[in-house]
Design brief:
This is MFS transporter. With about 400 residues, this protein is mainly α. The chain has 16 helices and no strands. It starts with a helix and ends in an 11-residue tail after the last helix.
């Protein structure tokens, strides 16, 4: 792994940790700010909305800035945001600060993806995307448990101070290791060009695949703890270990997806989508049985992130000539999909279908994704058009 990619990974790890660690310290935050735990949950949904809406808008507003300058600015905003969260006097200010950090988060991942693929050869793009994505998975395996432990020992404000220190480390790493020229286009594309590339079938079909992937993942994952407790019958103390193994599987899956993206992107993607449909069907079948359920959950976690890598690589490849808006829509699309999946899962549970029905929804979503991917791949082969060549580097 090259040093510039390591710097981008550190910042991705920081953003991923601060997004997810709030769940680990939510009761302490609620108590400290004088609100109920359900009300404190808006700190999670508010962050997702900040990524989904604010990220693309900030990316468009800053598309003329040099990429390294923008990345450093976003890292500084992250660092200051963590310090401000640690000092937040009330819930309203905490919510607004979280949303502001989320806007920087959404813009960061869009820009970092473009920069990452610009730093490597064409046949290494998949692994470059995988490195950035692994920042999110590793944050779940290491950052979130560590941040939660810090909050339990020294209080939730200490968690955000540590996040601020991590932001300083990310800023310094990018300042020292990122080259001045990032491989990004020299002249910022016009807004019309940015919007026009979204009409390419490889782009909008990939966004559909992204939505289906989130339905396959978060309809179940949002409610994975009660599913494991009530359907599988696991002891409550074992659930964190299952989630840890799921995170390990996700981290391995990211790099597997990167390798396959650089080998045969669409055949690999179609195969993994089909395997995920089968895996979700298996989860439905074995959910009452602890050992096979745990194994299936690990495989499911690995495939979720293995699939995400080629989807994002494909979007970046087919928007290389005007990638700003499209790249910023990647984290936005994921978070919209997460919100829709969680809402659909809640609606099904409220309708009385039960936790065991959730992987069935995911399996059908994956079958839809297989059909869309196959049709898109055939359409692409018939048209015999190659991905665009990026404009000259800075």
């Amino acid at each position: 792994m090259s040093l510039p990619l390591i710097a981008l990974f550190i910042a991705a790890f920081a953003f991923g940790t601060t997004e997810f660690v709030i769940a680990g310290v939510l009761p302490q935050v609620a108590q400290g700010l004088g609100v109920s735990v359900p009300s404190a949950g808006y700190l999670v949904s508010g962050y997702a909305c900040g990524i989904a809406i604010g990220g693309p808008l900030l990316a468009l507003a800053t598309k003329s800035l040099p990429r390294k300058t923008l990345l450093l600015g976003l890292a500084v905003a992250f660092t200051l945001g963590q310090a401000a969260c640690a000092l937040a006097p009330d819930f309203t200010s905490m919510l607004l600060l979280r949303i502001a950090v989320a806007v920087a988060h959404g813009a960061y991942f869009g820009v970092a993806m473009v920069v990452a693929v610009g730093l490597v050869r064409e046949d290494q793009r998949g692994m470059a995307v995988a490195v950035i994505l692994s920042g999110l998975t590793v944050s779940n395996v290491i950052g979130v448990p560590a941040g939660t432990a810090i909050g339990n020992i020294w209080g939730w404000r200490a968690t955000f101070w540590v996040m601020g220190a991590l932001g300083v480390a990310a800023t310094l790493a990018m300042a020292a290791l990122l080259p001045r020229t990032t491989g990004y286009q020299a002249k910022a594309a016009s807004l019309a060009s940015e919007v026009r590339v979204l009409a390419r079938q490889q782009v909008w079909t990939s966004l559909i695949l992204m939505l289906m992937l989130m339905l396959g993942q978060f309809c179940l994952f949002t409610y994975i703890t009660p599913t494991l407790l009530e359907v599988t019958g696991l002891d409550e103390n074992l659930v964190p270990w299952v989630l840890l193994l799921n995170g390990v599987g996700a981290t391995l899956g990211v790099f597997l997806g990167g390798k396959l993206s650089d080998w045969k992107l669409m055949p690999s993607l179609i195969t993994m989508l089909a395997l995920q449909a089968v895996t979700l069907a298996v989860i439905y079948a074995v959910s009452p049985y602890p050992v096979p359920m745990v194994v299936a959950i690990i495989v499911w976690g690995g495939l979720n992130f293995a699939i995400g890598t080629p989807i994002q690589t494909r979007i970046l490849s087919w928007t290389a000539d005007a990638s700003g808006l499209a790249a910023s829509l990647i984290p936005s699309g994921f978070n919209i999909g997460i919100a829709l999946a969680a809402s659909l899962g809640a609606a099904m549970l409220n309708a009385g279908y039960g936790y065991r029905s959730l992987p069935v929804v995911g399996a059908f979503a994956m079958l839809v994704a297989v059909i869309v991917a196959v049709l898109s791949h055939l359409w692409e082969r018939r048209s015999d058009i190659s991905p665009p060549v990026p404009a000259a580097a800075e």
